Amino acid sequence: MTGRESAGRSLEGLPFEVQRLILGKAPSLDELRTLIRASPQLYRVYVEDRPRILRAFISNLLEDIILDAHAAYVSGEDIFQSNRGHAMLWEFLDDFRQRRDFEAPAALAARLSEKQLIGIIRYHASVIEPLTDRYTAWATATLASPPQELKYELEEWPLTSIRDMDRRRIQRAFYHFQLFCNVSGRRVSHSSGRSSCIHDPSECWRVLTIFPEYQFEAIRCVHTFARMRIMILSTGSDSSL
């Protein structure tokens, strides 16, 4: 019997509540999937108590940035984008600011629907996590090289390990940038009808003032990174960067 098989059998022998706790404490989505696929028993535990497991998992995965991730997720949904009005947008932003200042992350996780839990977790794992790695590599390369010597080809940005605290700060900035784009921009598919956006420069500035100054600077850095990514992906040239 291999060590992996032995570990799987050991997990299967644990009480249901302990198995549920182990699944909820998985450090990443890949780890959670591995555990679920490791044995029929763990899969059964996940299926029978999926909402509670996902709430524990997302609280452990996102910690205090769950509030930012939730705001970015909700503001990006089709129903929000297709029905938003000027007053609605400001009401949403005011509500986000109040929740950010007063609502505990665990309280937010407790009221999320299963659909929201799955949507936020998938977006974080498939979009935010890879972008965090690329942003870290880009920022490290930018600091290490003079601008005139820096090469922007994606494959030349080596991935760099950073502290969990710094990783959270970067991810929070990505969610804030996404939130800003969701309320200040307009999707092509929702360019007409009742949908409106905050586009006046003074109002855009007002949106940014809901973030502390240090978070605003992080949003600017993410914006610069995003522009470079778009240029690279669209032209494949570094001459204009």
Description of the molecule:
- It is a single chain.
- The chain has 241 residues and is mainly alpha-helical.
- It folds into 2 domains: 1-48, no CATH class; 64-235, no CATH class.
- 73% of the residues lie in helices and 0% in strands.
- It is built from 13 helices and no strands.
- The longest helix has 31 residues, at 114-144.
- It is globular and about 60 Å long.
- The N and C termini lie far apart (56 Å).
- The model has no long low-confidence stretch (mean pLDDT 83).
Secondary structure layout:
Layout: H1 3-12, H2 16-24, H3 29-38, H4 40-48, H5 50-62, H6 66-76, H7 78-83, H8 86-102, H9 105-111, H10 114-144, H11 164-184, H12 201-208, H13 213-235
Helix pairs in contact: 2-5, 3-4, 5-9, 5-10, 6-11, 10-11, 11-13
What is the gist of this entry?
The chain has 241 residues and is an all-alpha fold. It is built from 13 helices and no strands.
Keywords:
single chain; mainly alpha; 13 helices; 73% helix; 241 residues
Give the biggest sheet.
none
Strand content: under 5%
Distance between the termini: 56 Å
How many separate helices? 13
Structural class: mainly alpha
Multimeric status of the protein: single chain
Calculate the mean pLDDT score and round it.
Answer: 83
Total domain modules:
2
Number of strands: 0
The residue fraction in helices comes out at over 70%
